[in-house]
Amino acid sequence: MSLSYWEIKSWFTNIDVTIVGSGIVGLSCALHLKEQHPKAKILVLEKGMLPQGASTKNAGFACFGSLSEILEDLKSHAEQDVFNLVKKRVDGLQLLRETLGDQAINYKNYGGYELFLQEDDLLETCLSQKEYLNNLLQPLFKKEVFSTKPNSFHFKNIKETYIFNPFEGQIDTGSMMEALLQKVQSKGIKILNNIAVESFSEDNNSVKVKTSSHEFSTSKLCIATNGFASQLINEDVKPARAQVLITKPIKGLHIKGTFHLDKGYYYFRNIDNRILFGGGRNLDFKGETTTEFAQTELIQNTLENILKTVILPKIPFEIEHRWSGIMGLGNTKNTIVKPLGNNVYCGVKLGGMGIAIGSLVGQELAQLIA
Ligand SMILES: Cc1cc2nc3c(=O)[nH]c(=O)nc-3n(C[C@H](O)[C@H](O)[C@H](O)COP(=O)(O)OP(=O)(O)OC[C@H]3O[C@@H](n4cnc5c(N)ncnc54)[C@H](O)[C@@H]3O)c2cc1C
Fold first, then answer.
1. Which of 85, 269, 293, 355 to mutate to test the pocket of ligand 1 (most atoms within 8 A of CB)?
2. CB 269 less than 6 A from any atom of ligand 1
3. What is the pLDDT along the chain (370 residues), one digit of tens a residue?
4. Which H or E run includes 85?
């Protein structure tokens, strides 16, 4: 199909910045660009009917790392780098809350819990390092971050002590993305869905973009495609599928908060009197290194089994729905935000806490453009 003269003139001419991907990074980048350059013509292209990667698929933990995750990071990153990583997540969450407001994202500060399997000695390691980590994070929170709590939710087959973090919260992921999309559109930024960018090439002062429907030119191109990045650029970012399920509403559900289990490989939370439960990538890292949205029997059966034996041992429940999302991971936890040429930039590899850092990464990406 040929585009009309009008379509080309109104939508695809004199574009200052084109952003590929309408996840939290692409949309945050668009917002900050518009603040910096109110007259700029900004276009966001999204291959899905909705944003279709991780930003609308995630668990909605407003978190910055459980005690065991931070200890794990300290094995491969310097102390200062780990501190900076946690700070970035805390600052990013603050920016998200300020940009959209707690009501719009349904932010709830129920706190976060880390649970430990019976057969694991990780709790003992965490307890021995608790004070050290609390001291490390003191400049950031001014208060103790990690403390212990007894098993008040009566989970089974776990140790009777949890590590509790009062600063962790939860959001409604769908409401957050809806609010972000509305805010971006209200600033006059165009978002076009069902268009996949297939390739691009740089001229002296512009970038030619080939999409699934046609070709056009843009002055600058920002790539915010996270787990799908390797389809367009050559950077250290691999797709990592994450599978999730949600129960039907459970009468009198007593569980409230965000929960990390087995070194963060599993995570669950309450939402609308249901339990949302995800994880299990460690059961098949190779198979889950994919951009294909799908659920597997191995992981879904394990999730259901943990629900039955650990989380809801005496409570009848039914699974209502299952889905998956695609994250972007690499060899380190650091995001990749950089120019790739004179007029092409990327902000990718958000990892497992991209809701926390997404707004900030979008802002950093926008700031790369002079
Ligand atoms: C199941 C799951 C649970 C998670 N839980 C949490 C959590 O509780 N807390 C947390 O902080 N983080 C969580 N995350 C991580 C977080 O969701 C991501 O890090 C974050 O959403 C990444 O945002 P993004 O904008 O970089 O990428 P995405 O949201 O993936 O956006 C990239 C967009 O680019 C589009 N795209 C890709 N290629 C093209 C192309 N060629 N042309 C046009 N468009 C394209 C995609 O369709 C997609 O919409 C979770 C992720 C998953 C999958």
1. 355
2. no
3. 789 999 999 999 999 999 999 999 999 999 999 999 999 999 999 999 999 999 999 999 999 999 999 999 999 999 999 999 999 999 999 999 999 999 999 999 999 999 999 988 999 999 999 999 999 999 999 999 999 999 999 999 999 999 999 999 999 999 999 999 999 999 999 999 999 999 999 988 999 999 999 999 999 999 999 999 999 999 999 999 999 999 999 999 999 999 999 989 999 999 999 999 999 999 999 999 999 999 999 999 999 999 999 999 989 999 999 999 999 999 888 999 999 999 999 999 999 999 999 999 999 999 999 7
4. helix 79-100
Taking the C-alpha atoms of 152, 157, 159 and 162 in order, what is their torsion angle to the nearest 10 degrees? -40
Q: How far apart are CA 91 and CA 72, in angstroms?
A: 21
With a 6 A CB cut-off, is 92 part of the ligand 1 pocket?
Answer: no
Interatomic CA distance for residues 283 and 141, integer angstroms = 35
Q: Is 5 exposed, middle or buried, given 0-12, 13-18 or 19+ CB atoms closer than 10 A?
A: exposed
CA 281, CA 283: separation in Å to the nearest integer? 5
Identify residue 96 by its one-letter amino acid code. L
For residues 130 and 67, is the Cβ–Cβ distance under 8 A?
Answer: yes
d(CA 347, CA 227): 11
CA distance 256 to 253: 8
Pick the residue whose CA is nearest to atom 31 on ligand 1: 23
Rounded to 5 degrees, φ, ψ at 25 are: -70, -50
For β-strands 238-247 and 319-329, DSSP reports them as antiparallel
Distance 351 CA to ligand 1 centre (A): 9
CB distance 244 to ligand 1 below 6 Å = yes
Locate 321 and state its tokens: 């729905």
pTM of the model: 0.97
Cβ(354) to ligand 1 under 6 A?
A: yes
Q: Which of 347, 337, 47, 345 is nearest to 220 (CA)?
A: 345
Of 18, 28, 21, nearest in space to 53 by CA: 21
Measured by CA distance, the residue closest to atom 20 of ligand 1 is 354
